[in-house]
């Protein structure tokens, strides 16, 4: 058995979370609330040291970069949500965020998800892989064509498209389950190794 | 006879000396050396090109680039590489895909201490070609780097954005004139009304999740848009919706969206801001909290719209265990299989983006969806034509869409 108090706390919290597999219970509730509270507290500290301090306080007060006051003011408008009379001001921040993210994402998505994919699809059909890629992409795109009823040739091609999608999902499912199993093994190694020392390293 | 042998060997050695020298031909000065501001950047980079030479470009030979702030020096080595590499064809981002680029060498001087510290300093360059024993130098060239307003290598993206925008605007106009534009049935969305009705009959709340991405994600934007439509139906049915959020900004947006939906439905009094709340932005703590919420409140319907990671199965499996009707919609390819296995209906990828237009049938969203559809039709046509031409050995279409 481990003698380190922190290993004991971690092991008991792990078991408390696993107890949810049986049913909801006070141990799970306690672990859940502790987990949520600790994660929020942790994220506040991380945000302060990785965002507020190096990107706001230091630039303004140490480097004299007063331009940073403008994004700070935009950020502070979110606080207006606590005052119902002025909560409309927070919409400026939200609109700013949405506008910026749309502007940044638009060219990136067109480049990475459209043009690069187009390049990778228009292949000389010299082997079975390239034939499958071209046929698969076309059929899947036809499945996602909403302006036409799935009848006749559209129905046939979209069904082939669904087949391709399901094969892809099957592979993805298997791969992800393998990754989850490795997470479980990690936890079991901790419980049986670090905690009760049944596994010897 | 014995004393003649060393003399013969000596004579033969002297005779063969010019022959050995002929095996290793003399190096020639690099030709047509040009220095110019590197295109498509913010300044601080200078590109050098010179003609490839059969005589110089051999193993064992190197190019050495020297830079200085004055044509009189002092000269500083800024780059050195084997003569068999470093061609214009290696950087199609600058020079395109012409075959001619294989016959030109290329070097980029970038952030050289003492030389290119300022983004607009004029720098002088000379090029030396050396095989270790011999070195020949080029003439001196100079250039000053400049920042560019436009990245011309991304012109295709501009063309695509402009083309798609035109299509979408055209169809929005069309949808305003004819709001009955056809959209095929999407079973997952048809079921939303049913789930809300079921929740109302059972007197239980509806749980709506927005996924783990912030407001900069397309799936979250689509999700908040669907939330508005769902919240309006919930307000009409006088049911309840709970929206636990992973991101504080998303929470603010959701509060606004739901509030507006209740106002539109004529039920502002029924809106409860506390039903849209922030939990945490830690993935598994969020999953643990949502799981607890599901088993304690037992919502009659769970809607999972947005982008998810490993928590998807934890949440959706708990929802399935409580017997709730579940509809998921995500463009997270790795998590879609888990939603398909645990939910009653799943909106895959683009169906999530289409959902808002499908539910509201507002001309603006309907036109956007139609425009995207015809954009897709255009892409399908390009793939077919491009593949046929690729098979025929014509790379024109493929090169046309090459981005760097």
Query: Structural class given helices, strands, pairing of chain B?
Result: alpha/beta
Output mean pLDDT of chain B: 86
* Shape label of chain A: extended
Number of strands of chain B: 14
Biggest sheet record of chain A? none
> Strand order across the biggest sheet of chain B?
11-10-9-12-13-14
How much helical structure, as a percent, in the residues of chain A? over 70%
**Alpha-carbon distance between the two ends of chain A:** 14 Å
Q: Report Rg of chain B.
A: 34 Å
Helix content of chain B: 40-55%
Low-confidence stretches of chain A: none
Mean pLDDT of chain A, as a whole number?
A: 91
Identify low-pLDDT runs of chain B: 17-22
- The share of residues in extended strands of chain B comes to 15-25%
Tally of DSSP helical segments of chain B? 12
Tell me what the structure shows:
The complex is a heterodimer of chains A (201) and B (404). Chain A has 201 residues and is mainly α. Chain A contains six helices and no strands. The model of chain A has no long low-confidence stretch (mean pLDDT 91). With 404 residues, chain B is of the alpha/beta class. Helices cover 44% and strands 20% of the residues of chain B. Chain B contains twelve helices and 14 strands. In chain B, the strands form three sheets. A six-stranded parallel β-sheet of chain B has the order 11-10-9-12-13-14, with helices on both faces. At the A-B interface, helix 2, helix 4, helix 5 and helix 6 of A face helix 3, helix 6, helix 7, helix 9 and helix 10 of B.
Relevant terms:
heterodimer, A: 201 residues, mainly alpha, 6 helices, 0% strand, B: 404 residues, alpha/beta, six-stranded parallel sheet, five-stranded antiparallel sheet, 12 helices, 44% helix, 20% strand
Short description:
The complex is a heterodimer of chains A (201) and B (404). Chain A has 201 residues and is mostly helical.
